[in-house]
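Re: [help] complex structure
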Amino acid sequence: MKASAPPLAEVQSAIRAAGARVTPARVRVLAALRAATAPQCHAEIEESLAQEAQPAIDRVTLYRVLDWLCSAGLAHKAADARGVFRFSAAQPNVEHAGHVHFRCTGCGGVFCLKAPPPPVPALPRGFRLGGMAVDIRGECPRCVRAHS
Amino acid sequence: MKASAPPLAEVQSAIRAAGARVTPARVRVLAALRAATAPQCHAEIEESLAQEAQPAIDRVTLYRVLDWLCSAGLAHKAADARGVFRFSAAQPNVEHAGHVHFRCTGCGGVFCLKAPPPPVPALPRGFRLGGMAVDIRGECPRCVRAHS
DNA sequence: CCGTTAATGCAACCAGGTTGCATCGGCAAC
DNA sequence: GTTGCCGATGCAACCTGGTTGCATTAACGG
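Output below.
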C-alpha cells in the first residue's frame, strides 16, 4: 500500500512555503499521503506511520495535522461511502480536480481511473460551482474473486 | 421541510409488498422520507417524527427501519460531505440511478439536478461496475448570499 | 543561546452508529 | 375471536471516528 517515497526536501519546503513550522509530524504525514496510491482514512495513516520505527504520532495531532494540510491546500478531505473521511495529497502543481474515482463496495478501497472527467452539467441560476467528483462504485478485482 | 403527505395506503402496500410486517414505525418513517424534499439525516427524521403527536420512535429502531428500507429497495443511503448518512425515499417506479446531485458545502444540503448523467467511463480489466454517482459541490444560492 | 509562540500530547468529551437481549405486537392459523 | 409464533421494538451498553481544553514541548527568528 505504498509507492516510492517522495523526496523529503520537497515535502519540507512545501510546508515551509505554506508559512508554518516544519515539524516531524507534518513532514511524516504529508510524506505518507504523497506516497499513498489512494486516499487514506485516519486509521490507515496512523497504521502506516506506526511502522516507521519513529515515535508514534498522537491521534489528535494526526487529525490536526490533516486538517491543517487541508486548510493549507496541501491535501484534500472527502467522506467516503462509509461516512469516514479520507485524505489525499494535493499534487504540487497538477491539481486533479474533477478526478474520476472507483470505489470498491467490498473493501472500501478507492482507485483512480485514467478516464477523463465528464463535462460539468449546467447549474441552475444562483448556484456557485466548487468542484465535481464522479464516484463510480462496484467491486475491485480482488473482491470480485474473493466474493465468488 | 415537508411536502404534501403521501397517501398512507401507498406507503403501507409498498411495505407489505416487500414481504414484511406493516408497523407504525415503518409506515411513519417511509411516509416522512417520501414527504421530504431532500435527503434526510437520522437526526432530521427523528425530529420531524417527534412533531407528529404520536409516540416517539426509538433511535435504534429508526436506524433499523432505515436500513431495512434500504435493503428492501424502498430507500437509498449515502454519506454526505460531513460524513453522516442521508436517506431518501426511492420513487415507487421511477428508479433514479445515476442521479446527478449538487451538494452545498455551506449548509450541507443536497439538490437534485435535472441534467442527464454522463456516460460511464471504461473500467480497467477485472473491475465490476455497481453504480455511478456524480457529486457536484459548491454553494447553493442562499449560502452564496449569506457568505458575502 | 534565549524567548516567543505555534505545535504537540494527554484526557476527556461528543455524535453518529451498532449490538445484545428481553419484551411487545402483526398477522396468520386455527 | 382467540392463540401463538416470530419478526419488530425499546432499552442499555458499547464502539468508532472526530473534537475540545489545557498544560507541556520544541521550532525558529532574533
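The radius of gyration of chain A is 17 Å.
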